[in-house]
Write a structure and sequence with these properties.
magnesium, Alpha-Beta Plaits, four-stranded antiparallel β-sheet, ATP-binding, 14 helices, galactokinase activity, alpha+beta, Galactokinase, eight-stranded mixed β-sheet, about 20% strand
C-alpha cells in the first residue's frame, strides 16, 4: 500500500458488536450498583465496585473478559440420556455471552438482558430461591466452590465477579440453561485462578441441575457444548459418562468428503412459548422410564432402560401398562436410530440421516408423548413440506414441552420454507403470532473463554 494511504477500515463482526454492547452495559451496571446499591449487594461488594470505578471506563472495559457458549441441538437421541443411552448433538452458531470482571470480594453480582431485576449473592451462595433466574448461577458457583475446596483440602475465600449474561436466542429447547451454567463455571474458575478440566465441568453441570435445581436430565447438553466441533456429530455414551471422551464423527468422513461445513442449514423455529423443565411433565417422563425398566427386569430396584437387554425387552414388554410400554418403545427405537444415524452421518447421506430425524420426532410425539400443541404443529408442517420441499429431517429440540423445533434444510430452499411457515403457523396459533421466530444456523465450536487479545479493545 502507498505510504500516504490510510489503512483499510475493518468493520466489526456481529459478535464483536454484541460484545461491545454488553461491555458498555456491564460498565453501566458497575456504575449504578457502586453508586446507588440497587442490586442488594453487601457493603463489601459495593466498596469493591467503587474501587473498580476509580480505574476509569476505558481501563475497565479493556479488562472485561468474555465467555462464549454455543447453544446445541440433538438430532437423534431424544429423551434417552437420562436412561444412560447413547445420544448425539452438535453446537450451532447461536450463543450465550457472559461478559464479566473479577471482584476481590466474595460476592457475585449479575444482570441479564432476558430477566430482571439484577441480583447478587455471597460466596458460597445461600439456598436457591424458588423460580429465580439466578438459580443456575447459584448452583454453578456452589458446585465449583465445593470442587475447589475438595481439591485443595481446605476452606477458601473465593473471589467473586460482576457480569452480564445474554442469549442470542429465545429461551427454551436449545440448552441455554447448560450454556449459562458453563459460562458461570468458566468465569468463576478464571476469577479464582483455578483450572477445571472439561470432563469435570460435565459433572459440575450435572450437580448444578440434578442436585441443586431438581431437574432429572442427563449429560447430553453440557457434554455437547463442551466437546463438539463444526461439521462433527458428537456421540455421547451416557452410561460411561465422562470417563470416556465423546466420539466425534466428521460429516462424510467415510467417503473422504472435505472437512468443510455440513451441506444443510439448521433451521430453528422458536414456537413462542418457553418453559421451565422442572415445572413440566419432563420429570414425570423420567420416572416412567425408570418404572418401565424395573418392570421389564422384574425387580423392585430402581433401574434405567439402558440396563434392559433388547431380548428381555421383547420378552417382557407385553407386561407393561400402556404408558410405560410407550416410554420403553421410544427408548429402544431411538437407541437404534442413533446407531444407524451415526453411520449415515459418517457416509454424508443427509437424506437417510434426515429420515431418521423425522422418525425420532414421530416417536417423541406418539411414544414419549412430549410436545406442546405449538411444537406438534411445527413438526407436522415440516413433515408436510418433506424432503422434496427441502426439509431433510425435523424434530423437537430439547425436552419437547415448549421452546423450539429444529429442521435440517436445503439452503437453496430455506427462504421458501420460512415463507410457508410464516403463512401457516400464526394462523394456527394466533396467540404466538408476535412471539415466534425463525433462525438459520451453522454448526459451531465448543464453549470457550475468549483470550485477552479477543476480549480487549472491543467496546471502547
Amino acid at each position: 500500500a502507498d505510504a500516504g494511504l490510510a489503512p483499510p477500515v475493518v468493520e466489526p463482526t456481529n459478535q464483536q458488536k454484541e460484545i461491545a454492547k454488553l461491555k458498555n452495559l456491564l460498565f453501566f451496571q458497575i456504575e449504578s450498583q457502586a453508586l446507588d446499591g440497587d442490586g442488594g449487594e453487601s457493603e463489601g461488594a459495593k466498596k469493591a465496585l467503587q474501587e473498580l470505578l476509580l480505574q476509569g471506563k476505558e481501563a475497565l472495559i479493556s479488562q472485561m473478559r468474555v465467555v462464549l457458549a454455543p447453544l446445541r441441538v440433538s438430532p437423534l437421541g431424544a429423551h434417552i440420556d437420562h436412561q444412560l443411552g447413547v445420544v448425539t448433538g452438535f453446537n450451532i452458531s447461536r450463543y450465550v455471552y457472559y461478559v464479566f470482571l473479577p471482584l476481590s470480594h466474595p460476592s457475585v453480582l449479575l444482570s441479564s438482558t432476558s430477566f430482571s431485576p439484577p441480583l447478587s449473592f455471597p460466596l458460597p451462595p445461600p439456598p436457591l430461591k424458588k423460580e429465580d433466574w439466578g438459580n443456575h448461577a447459584r448452583g454453578a458457583c456452589l458446585s465449583l466452590i465445593n470442587f475447589i475446596k475438595n481439591k485443595k483440602n481446605e476452606d477458601i475465600r473465593p473471589n467473586g465477579m460482576i457480569g452480564v449474561i445474554h442469549s442470542t436466542m429465545p429461551i427454551g429447547g436449545l440448552s441455554s440453561s447448560a450454556a449459562s451454567t458453563l459460562c458461570y463455571l468458566f468465569s468463576l474458575e478464571f476469577c479464582n485462578n483455578f483450572e477445571v478440566s472439561r470432563e469435570d465441568k460435565v459433572e459440575l453441570c450435572r450437580q448444578t441441575e440434578n442436585d441443586f435445581l431438581g431437574l432429572k436430565n442427563g449429560l447430553l447438553d453440557q457434554t455437547t457444548i463442551l466437546f463438539s466441533r463444526p461439521s462433527h456429530l458428537t456421540c455421547i455414551d451416557c452410561q460411561k459418562g465422562v470417563r470416556e471422551t465423546p466420539t466425534l464423527v466428521r460429516w462424510g468422513e467415510e467417503n473422504n468428503h472435505d472437512s468443510g461445513p455440513i451441506p444443510f442449514k439448521v433451521m430453528i423455529v422458536y414456537c413462542g412459548k418457553s418453559r421451565v423443565l422442572a415445572n413440566t411433565n419432563y420429570n414425570n417422563r423420567v420416572t416412567e422410564c425408570r418404572e418401565a425398566a424395573s418392570l421389564l427386569l422384574l425387580t423392585d430396584e430402581t433401574k434405567k432402560l439402558r440396563e434392559v437387554p433388547v431380548e428381555t425387552y421383547e420378552k417382557n414388554k407385553h407386561k407393561l401398562p400402556d404408558n410405560l410400554a410407550k416410554r420403553a418403545k421410544h427408548f429402544m427405537t431411538e437407541q437404534a436410530r442413533v446407531f444407524e444415524g451415526k453411520d449415515e452421518w459418517r457416509k454424508g447421506d443427509f437424506s437417510s440421516f434426515g429420515r431418521l430425524v423425522f422418525a425420532s420426532g414421530e416417536s417423541s410425539v406418539n411414544n414419549y408423548e412430549a410436545g406442546s400443541p405449538q411444537l406438534v404443529t411445527l413438526y407436522e408442517l415440516f413433515c408436510e413440506i418433506g424432503q422434496t420441499g427441502g426439509v431433510y429431517g425435523a424434530r423437537f429440540s430439547g425436552g419437547g414441552f415448549g421452546g423450539c423445533c429444529l429442521a435440517l434444510v436445503d439452503p437453496q430452499q430455506q427462504d421458501a420454507i420460512a415463507k410457508r411457515l410464516h403463512a401457516i403457523y400464526p394462523k394456527k396459533h394466533p396467540e404466538e403470532k408476535d412471539c415466534y421466530s425463525i433462525h438459520f444456523c451453522d454448526s459451531a465450536e465448543s464453549v470457550r473463554l475468549l483470550g485477552e487479545d479477543e476480549s480487549q479493545n472491543v467496546g471502547l
